[in-house]
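re: ur question from earlier - yeah i can do the single chain one, its not a big deal. heres the input i used so u can compare w yours
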Amino acid sequence: MIVWINGAFGAGKTSTARELIDLIPNSTLFDPELVGDGMRYLLPQKRLDEVGDYQDLSIWRRLVVDTAAALLTELGGVLVIPMTVLRQEYRDEIFGGLASRRIPVRHVLLRPDETILRERIAGREVPQTPDGEQRVGQWAYDHLEPYRAALDWITADAHVIDTSRLDPHESAWQIARAVRTDAAPACEIVQTPEPTAETVAAGVLLFDEDDRVLLVDPTYKPGWEFPGGVVESGEAPARAGMREVAEELGIGLTDVPRLLVVDWEAPRPPGFGGLRLLFDGGRLPDGDARRVRLPGSELRGWKFVSEQDAAQLLPPTRYERLRWALRARERGTVLNLEAGIPVG
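and the output i got, formated as tokens:
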């Protein structure tokens, strides 16, 4: 299990985490700042200069998940992680990656009043070292507005503790009690386990009256996607696509969708690749579109988009798969692809 302590910069997450490991048996502190520091040694400066925050690096988010999982494999027990995460898609990606490893996450927010938070930030500044603590303080001030903007989704997701009048030990005691009594339940983000071999996945393209295609926004990985998922053992691929549409969107397709493309995805560690199939689910009547109901633990949004807009939302290989599927739909044919490129 992981206890993830979120909050504004300067909210006292790390000091509270240090107290918490004394209150939860067999617990270990893991600070993802260490992974961020490692980016300076792992990546060229040119790449680091392209981002304003190491959280914007996909390698950081993956390494946080991998390191946390490795620590729990090595040590067992509970991992306490003090880390500010203000972007919901990053929370979704990290927590989804942990969920895929069957690691439950208890998400806790330390939320002092802003006036007290500002006082605590100011108290950390040391005028004699303007290049050190004052810089850290300014960083904390600069992130107050993004923190305020993120409060809606964080408070809806996390167990909130008002620490305005609590010291780190008292805050830790409240977290320990919330974990013990399930007042801070495990995050509901789910993801299928990571594959251990090649897989077959079936996606279904659904269209509106203007022939825009429906895309969904998964909570557990970056980038948009088509409705669909992995074909289960003994399941027909087209039927798997229909099942996924029903599970993800609440829409029951009456006709078996027509195959548009078969795309072979090469294995790229840590992925195993496999066959990716796209089917034509046809046009959705307006009434069906209005009845879409997303599973909040898996998908955060959906929308109809043009082919041009899809290029901005889909990862490159996925977009190429869509582009050729649309051509196959126009021609009434089936295309064989390898890594998004037609062959044969």
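The chain is about 40% helix and 20% strand. not sure if urs matches, ping me
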